[in-house]
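> call design_seq(struct)
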């Protein structure tokens, strides 16, 4: 009954009219029986004698407003008194009757007389301190969420006293002009959105409560939604003096949290206004940086802060504060000296004194009473979660005023206790409540868990998510009361609901069960789509606009120039309030919650495309627009969503116009064709002339056909080598090659001419090219379907056996070898050591997309993978062919001293890893790479390079093999033993130029570490010769023959001479004979030099050949940029693939650079033991001089440690730092360091290392920097937030090649299984780099991998509009290759047919086409293509390459008969070509 009475009071106070002032006390019975309030009668107005007709009054508007406000206050006051008395009477009677058992103790004594009440607008009183959460930030006010589904607003003048003073000073012109620059900058007025953010908690005090429907609130401006409307009723203040009023100075202990405002900016920090008398706050700049201020480096005067006291000064006048969020969340109160010191938002220690079905009663801080309603408890029954006597930490929401003794309302909700926003937990992460359930979301099943008979329903939406349905939103008809045990909305019932809003502080959704709301098309402005045709109801017509109700609370406006196609003189005759109107959405502005509509018949009934954003404005699109401005030289037109374009005067009409303004008045709808779009400036140029029907006769509109479309048509004309076809039903004129049609019908062109007639119908044509500017289309006939390979259909894991021959296509290369696709579900791995019996002449790394035959070595049924081999000894074991590189399957097959060949698997900091077999790798340390010291050794080697070495050691337990590229020990020892004492004056030596200076040459003696100077005067016998010129002729590394002129043993200096008179002819003859005798027996180890065959390129005069070479070059450039692109490219030459050998292979006979001259030259010859750059084993082997034992031993220890550091995996930060000192530019090391930090969960440390790397790596090492950026992007993608990832991505794009970073970002999303983000990234990339063919093809490949075939195919026509013409053919070719690999091979074949038909001399296209067909394994199709291409006129060089390719494919896919046929045709072609040239 009490609740029923409360419902009546709510209704009574909900009308804005003045109420009758109650003078007597009503009984409880009379109040309960009154279903409606008494008719309001004002005693002030009763004295009036006459009442003006129409409900007028003789009072002024100001007097009426004042009287109404006074009457409302009187009525509310009396109603509160009645309610209080009746409530107490009812409670007393209930308790006398027994009440509830839980409110009594064992003796029957009442333990608590406290009632748990909900907060409503009636109970909100001026002076109440309350905790709120910011919902929205308006220009002049804040919208704040209060407990129990209430809202309030904070005017900008109630933020802080200092901010108000700054606002007032803006109007004072004199003060502005007299202020200095520094003062003016410090007093800049910050916008509210800079100070506050949605979701932020604020401590406030109520300053005013307005009657329902009040309109005097000016800070909010025009109300745009229900939340703003509700927030008008309560006005709050955040000013610290008001909020902290009553806080005792003695309670400002460490941990006390409260509001403060920046009063002034000092040298070391900020002076804060705490709102507490005689106390100022101080916040240091250092502590301010830890606050949640984003990018704000300086806090403005007047800024409001939430602070925690950290220390009170000795004199009690200043307290130091912190603004760190973690400190604010955890700061709690344990005791206060006065109840007025408890401010809203304080986390207090509490004791549960009673558990009731509707909440908890707490004892706060041991003295004060508090209540927690069910909205601020965790979901479920309070009795299950809490027991009497339990200690809890709760946060103060508001003080219940008036109450004596003081009482507080508190919250135990997790998001409020943690000072966070309500979020929804999911598998991946937590999502904000607003994002998880956007406004307008329809919930199919919500379960009623609590019924409040006079307020509404509490329903369960999902795990941990509740919603509130107000009683007015339960049904369309009026529902007076609800029951929890009966009726349609009793506890446990399930209903369909729709999200209409949020109550952020309570952390619940605002729902509606009303069928009318569920049926509404739009609930908010953001739901409306631009260009949508809608039917609305006219609300009102004013002089400035027409207002239309679209759906529910969503309204739209029609401006006068959009009333009709022409200007209406009397719009009121056409638009009547309440009438229906058909409109199209013109503009949607979600921020301003505004929708602009158009009622122009031309736009409403238009079937042309909607152009609402720049990406919709494609060249060639014909659409409708409206003229909004005219000038002498152009028209300015407007599409949808305020997108504008310009129409030059020459494009406005076919005929010359005297006045554009007269022909095209403002507001006139026009049909235009977009002719140009500049994405950078956003400028769009359109033409009215080209959009007219008459213009179509000049250039046909071919927008109805796209490349790849299957069409049909009628022959309209037959020309020399083309047929003109009119396509149906688009009537587009197309050209068809007679050669192509003859090939399809398998007849000659002459026969086709005799049979083909005008009017013949042609079907199964495919569009291969289109030119919108010239209005013509090229088509080709669709090729016949090929027969499927029997082998692929019958190959299965159950039937395949080791030794069986299989065929497949190379997909890509990975660390285990080549991945071969055998069937759609079965793949195979071909290790490089299983590819050939002779690595040098075989194909260890077959080209991607090449087709090969292999034998099965083993079957892995779990991974559905086969291990394959293409060794001839495996394929044809019966043939006795020599095996150069034997197959190594286990360590037992290796012996120390064996010379073997293998492929470089990886290049590490400490040496190389060489793969010798499928599971066998060998290590080559740096000291074992060369006979001489080489500083830049890494550049000599590359992954997959063929090398030869000798086995040094084998550890079978650890499965470790050590290998060496160095020559024998004898030679090494002889070289290292040469010292200064072994030389003599007059001795002739071989040397190498180490350095060239202005005064002479520094020469190093070959086979030693000794070097000396040859003065420039010792270069020539001719005294008059220009020795400077002679010096310039020498280069570092040049071999020279020199004579030792003098040796200074004390200073350890050697002088050389190079004069020709010092030498005889026999000196040089002896050298040649020695070098020849040395080279014969020694077989060099290390990199295997390969003699690559290369035919000299022949020049073609034909234009098409030049174009082909350009495209091939472009394709190879693209391929080098990305591995995925490389999968599309085809090896045009049929030569055997060879690993890239080093140009300067290391061998014993080639001396290498040995002296490090970075720190200058030393005259004294360096001792072998003193050279720290020497290999560590030299010191261990050199045991000759006893006098130098100690020095050598010390050096030996150091070098051994260094070697250990190279061979050992870094295990600590110190290890990484040590390695980075030696290789600061190695991205590999930096990324390893980051990975090491991630393994120990040091995410922030990994980020710091990445930033350090970017600063440390030399700016010239662009690739190394890019590697670190990509690693950082990967890190942010896995461990960071969307914001941090976006920020890192933008930085990476600025510092590196932007296109590369965009594509790598998309690749990262693909690899991390985020296809939607990858798609969004690709869209951004094609928008930014629309001129790049690679971007379009990668986007298409992404779609095809996801199975989105249609989306991928739509990209081709889009790319043609953006790309330059010379890139069209290459792009079409790439799309065709993608169709072969990931889409429909038949479609790819169709596109290739069109390409080779329109560009018959593009040999590269023919070659790619052949490779694609070979990949399908259809040898008949391949033979047909070769026959066609070889029938064309070409050079002998081209013909040779095609025959060579054909022969190899016949060996792989065909048979012996086919091979013989190819050879015969090659001979025939050669004879025919020779006969032609002779004639």
């Amino acid at each position: 009954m009490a609740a029923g009475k409360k419902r009546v009071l709510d209704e009574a106070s909900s009308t804005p009219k003045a109420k009758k002032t109650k003078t007597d006390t009503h009984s409880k019975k009379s109040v309960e029986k009154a279903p409606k309030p008494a008719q309001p009668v004002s005693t002030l107005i009763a004295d009036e004698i006459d009442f003006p007709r129409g409900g007028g009054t003789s009072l002024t508007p100001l007097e009426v407003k004042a009287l109404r406000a006074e009457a409302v206050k009187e009525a509310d006051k009396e109603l509160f008194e009645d309610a209080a008395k009746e409530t107490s009477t009812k409670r007393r009677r209930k308790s006398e009757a027994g009440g509830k058992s839980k409110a009594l103790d064992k003796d029957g004594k009442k333990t608590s007389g406290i009632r748990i009440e909900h907060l409503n607008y009636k109970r909100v009183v001026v002076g109440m301190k309350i905790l709120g959460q910011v919902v929205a930030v308006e220009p002049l006010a804040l919208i704040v969420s209060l407990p129990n589904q209430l809202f309030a607003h904070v005017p900008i003048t109630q933020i802080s006293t200092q901010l108000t003073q700054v606002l007032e000073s803006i109007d004072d012109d004199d003060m502005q002009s007299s202020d200095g620059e520094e003062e003016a900058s410090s007093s800049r007025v910050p916008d509210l959105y800079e100070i506050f953010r949605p979701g932020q908690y604020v401590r406030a005090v109520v300053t005013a409560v307005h009657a329902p429907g009040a309109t005097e609130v000016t800070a909010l401006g025009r109300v745009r939604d229900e939340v703003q409307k509700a927030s008008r009723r309560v006005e709050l203040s955040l000013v610290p003096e008001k909020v902290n009023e009553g806080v005792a100075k003695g309670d400002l202990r460490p941990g006390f949290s409260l509001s403060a405002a920046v009063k002034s900016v000092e040298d070391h920090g900020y002076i804060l206004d705490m709102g507490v008398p005689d106390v100022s706050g101080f916040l240091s700049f250092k502590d301010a940086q830890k606050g949640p201020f984003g990018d704000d480096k300086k806090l403005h005067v007047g800024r409001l802060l939430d602070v925690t006291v950290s220390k009170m000064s000795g004199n009690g006048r200043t307290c130091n504060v912190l603004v760190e969020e973690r400190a604010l969340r955890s700061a709690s109160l344990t005791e206060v000296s006065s109840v007025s010191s408890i401010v809203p938002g304080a986390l207090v220690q509490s004791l549960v004194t009673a558990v009731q079905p509707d909440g908890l009663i707490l004892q706060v801080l041991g003295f004060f009473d508090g209540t927690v309603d069910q909205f601020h408890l965790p979901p479920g029954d309070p009795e299950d979660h809490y027991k009497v006597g339990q200690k809890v930490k709760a946060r103060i929401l508001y003080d219940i005023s008036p109450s004596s003794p003081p009482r507080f309302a508190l919250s135990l909700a997790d998001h409020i206790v943690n000072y966070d926003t309500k979020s929804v937990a999911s598998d991946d992460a937590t999502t904000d409540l607003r994002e998880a359930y956007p406004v307008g979301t329809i919930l199919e099943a919500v379960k009623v868990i609590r019924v409040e008979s006079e307020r509404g329903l509490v329903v369960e939406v999902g795990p941990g998510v509740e919603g509130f349905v107000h009683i007015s939103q339960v049904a369309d008809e009026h529902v007076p009361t609800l029951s929890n045990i009966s009726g349609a909305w009793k506890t446990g019932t399930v209903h369909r609901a729709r999200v209409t809003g949020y109550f952020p502080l309570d952390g619940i959704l605002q729902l509606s069960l009303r069928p009318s709301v569920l049926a509404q098309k739009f609930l908010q402005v953001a739901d409306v789509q631009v260009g949508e045709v809608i039917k609305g109801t006219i609300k009102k017509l004013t002089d400035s606009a027409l207002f239309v109700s679209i759906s529910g609370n969503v309204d739209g406006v029609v401006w006068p120039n959009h009333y009709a196609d022409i200007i209406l003189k009397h719009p009121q005759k056409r638009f009547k309030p309440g009438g229906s109107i058909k409109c199209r959405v013109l503009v949607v502005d979600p921020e301003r919650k505004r929708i602009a509509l158009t009622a122009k018949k031309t736009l409403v009934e238009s079937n042309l495309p909607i152009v609402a954003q720049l990406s919709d404005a494609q060249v060639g699109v014909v659409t409708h627009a409206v003229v909004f401005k005219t000038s002498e030289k152009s028209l300015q037109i407007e599409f949808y969503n305020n997108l504008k374009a310009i129409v030059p005067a020459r494009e406005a009409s076919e005929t010359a116009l005297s006045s554009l303004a007269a022909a095209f008045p403002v507001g006139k709808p026009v049909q235009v064709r977009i002719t140009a779009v500049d994405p950078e400036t956003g400028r769009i140029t359109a033409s009215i002339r080209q959009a007219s029907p008459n213009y179509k006769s000049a250039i046909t509109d071919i927008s109805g056909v796209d490349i790849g479309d299957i069409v049909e048509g009628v022959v309209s004309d037959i020309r020399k080598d083309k047929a003109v076809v009119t396509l149906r039903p688009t009537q587009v004129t197309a050209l068809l090659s007679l050669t192509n049609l003859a090939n399809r019908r398998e007849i000659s062109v002459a026969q086709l001419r005799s049979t083909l007639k005008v009017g013949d119908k042609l079907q199964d044509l495919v569009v291969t090219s289109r030119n919108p500017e010239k209005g013509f289309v090229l088509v080709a006939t669709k090729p016949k379907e090929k027969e499927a390979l029997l082998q692929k259909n019958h190959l299965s894991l159950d039937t395949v056996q080791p030794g069986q021959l299989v065929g497949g296509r190379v997909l890509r290369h990975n660390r285990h070898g080549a991945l071969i696709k055998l069937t759609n579900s079965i793949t195979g791995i071909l290790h490089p050591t299983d590819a050939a019996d002779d690595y040098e002449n075989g194909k260890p790394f077959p080209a991607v997309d090449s087709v090969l035959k292999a034998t099965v070595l083993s079957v892995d049924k779990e991974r559905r993978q086969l291990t394959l081999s293409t060794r001839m000894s495996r394929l044809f074991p019966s043939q006795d062919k020599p095996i150069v590189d034997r197959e190594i399957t286990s360590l037992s097959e290796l012996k120390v001293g064996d010379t073997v060949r293998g492929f470089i698997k990886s290049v590490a900091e400490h040496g190389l890893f060489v793969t010798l077999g499928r599971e066998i790798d060998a290590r080559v340390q740096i000291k074992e790479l060369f006979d001489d010291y080489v500083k830049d050794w890494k550049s000599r080697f590359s992954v997959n390079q063929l090398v030869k070495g000798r086995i040094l050691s084998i550890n079978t337990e650890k499965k470790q093999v050590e290998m060496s590229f160095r020559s024998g020990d004898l030679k090494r020892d002889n070289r290292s033993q040469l010292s200064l004492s072994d030389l003599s004056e007059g001795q002739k030596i071989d040397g190498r130029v180490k350095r060239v200076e202005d005064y002479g040459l520094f020469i190093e003696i070959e086979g030693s570490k000794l070097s000396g100077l040859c003065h420039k005067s010792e270069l020539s016998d001719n005294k008059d010769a220009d020795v400077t010129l002679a010096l310039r002729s020498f280069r570092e590394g040049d071999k020279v023959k020199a004579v030792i002129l003098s040796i200074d043993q004390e200073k350890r200096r050697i002088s050389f001479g190079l004069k020709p008179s010092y030498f005889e002819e026999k000196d040089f003859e002896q050298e040649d004979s020695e070098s020849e005798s040395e080279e014969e027996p020694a077989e060099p180890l290390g990199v295997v030099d390969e003699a690559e065959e290369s035919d000299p390129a022949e020049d073609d005069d034909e234009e098409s050949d030049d174009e082909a070479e350009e495209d091939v070059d472009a394709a190879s450039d693209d391929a080098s940029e990305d591995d995925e692109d490389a999968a599309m490219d085809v090896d045009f030459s049929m030569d055997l693939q060879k690993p890239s050998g080093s140009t300067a292979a290391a061998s014993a006979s080639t001396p290498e650079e040995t002296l490090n001259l970075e720190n200058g030259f030393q005259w004294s010859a360096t001792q072998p033991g003193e050279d720290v750059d020497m290999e560590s084993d030299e010191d261990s082997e050199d045991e000759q001089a006893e006098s130098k034992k100690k020095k050598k031993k010390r050096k030996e220890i150091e070098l051994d440690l260094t070697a250990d550091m190279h061979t050992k995996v870094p295990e600590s930060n110190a290890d990484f730092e040590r390695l980075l000192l030696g290789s600061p530019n190695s991205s590999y090391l930096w990324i390893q360091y980051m990975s090491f930090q991630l393994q120990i969960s040091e995410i922030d440390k990994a980020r710091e290392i990445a930033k350090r790397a970017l600063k440390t790596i030399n700016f010239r090492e662009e690739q190394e920097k890019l590697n670190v950026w990509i690693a950082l992007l990967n890190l942010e993608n896995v461990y960071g937030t969307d914001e941090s990832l976006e920020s890192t991505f933008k930085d990476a794009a600025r510092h590196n090649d932007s296109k590369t970073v965009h594509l790598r970002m998309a690749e990262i999303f693909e690899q991390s299984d985020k296809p939607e983000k990858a798609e969004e990234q690709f869209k951004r990339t094609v928008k930014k780099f629309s001129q790049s063919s690679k971007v379009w093809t990668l986007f298409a490949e992404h779609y095809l991998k996801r199975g989105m075939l249609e989306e991928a195919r739509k990209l081709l026509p889009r790319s043609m509009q953006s790309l330059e013409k010379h890139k069209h053919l290459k792009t079409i070719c790439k799309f065709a290759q993608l169709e072969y690999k990931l889409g429909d091979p038949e479609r790819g074949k169709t596109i290739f047919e069109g390409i080779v038909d329109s560009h018959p001399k593009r040999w590269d296209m023919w070659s790619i086409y052949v490779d694609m067909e070979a990949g399908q394994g259809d040898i008949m199709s391949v033979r047909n293509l070769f026959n066609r291409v070889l029938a064309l006129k070409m050079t002998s060089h081209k013909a040779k390459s095609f025959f060579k390719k054909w022969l190899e494919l016949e060996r792989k896919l065909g048979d012996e008969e086919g091979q013989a046929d190819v050879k015969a045709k090659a001979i025939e072609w050669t004879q025919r070509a020779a006969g032609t040239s002779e004639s």
